[in-house]
Amino acid sequence: MEVQAAVLNAPSAPFSIETIEVAAPQAGEVLVDIQAAGICHTDLAAATGAFGNPFPIVLGHEGAGVVEAVGPGVTSVKPGDKVLLTFNSCGHCPRCESHDPAYCFQFFPLNFAGARADGSSRLSKNGKPVGDNFFGQSSFAAKAVANERNVLKVADDADLATLAPLGCGIQTGAGGVLRSLKAARGEALVVIGGGAVGLSAVMGGKIAGCDPIILIEPQAGRRDMALTLGATHVIDPISNPATAEAVRAIVPAGVDMVVDTSGFVPALEQAVGMVSTMGRIGLIGVPGSLDAALPVPLVPFITMGGTVRGIVEGDSDITGFLPELIEHYHAGRLPVDKFITRYPFDQINQAIDDAHHGKCIKPVLVFA
Ligand code: CXF
Ligand code: ZN
User: Fold this and answer.
1) Residue with the nearest Cα to atom 9 of ligand 1?
2) What digits encode the pLDDT tens for the residues 159-183?
3) Structural domain includes residue 329
């Protein structure tokens, strides 16, 4: 069938709204009529070709919509169900079996290869394949073919434009604090970077009962937003570049956790000076260069029992964590609607431009 999609024809080209062909779902696949799709930083990185993905391609990995058809063998959803889409995983490697699908042995091919495992694509233009299956969905399109493993049924009255970003950015930040770093009540938390992921980490810290919760972020609007979401202190790293000292002025012994969502190495380097004994540093933000490194002074770090760990998708597990987040949203503990801005689907380039210029925090494309 023919649908409108935001196609990226070459690295760093603008998104181009075009008509493409979408194939019927095969075994284990789910055709979703997309109603909303959040834009995440990883879409923009993939738009440059940073993940080795092919071009042309349809990106988008925070999709939400209504199931239109299912392929053979699909049992967890049916046509008419409202669904959220998230990242893909294989379902049978040791990490998937231990409910850690974000560390699936096949994570990269299943989320970035731009095709099914056999190399075929569900999308085409003028008879030529278009890269698909980005995060198992490619949801910058009016319809997407996802996989049963990355589709979650939600309530019939769910507000899909609000919930769509839970499938990546929100679960990454909130899960990074709640699941990956296992935040406990009363622990001191620093969050570096106040975009959608960092603000979700702040909300995760509040849910866990962390105190204080300190956000380090250069944009005043984001710092103000963080204060409404649970941050107890904010630090502007431009006027106050010695951020480790600024953190220790608030918590002299150092904090229990630092979660970095900036991927900005000079900001992150100070994290080592912020943590107390047995401090945990969680790395979420992906630096622009594969050579980026974090120098850790080994002797002090060993003797203080420190931990540095990488975090993908907040250690989320589609059926184990997304429903919890939806509950937090309904209970008012995860007010993501405060920092979502809706854009009509065909305004995708404007939405990205606005995000770049700090005019919005989490753009969500909505389909008419
Ligand atoms: C990504 C970040 C880069 C590594 C894989 C997961 N998260 C979502 O956008
Ligand atoms: Zn993402």
Assistant:
1) 42
2) 999 999 999 999 999 999 999 999 9
3) no
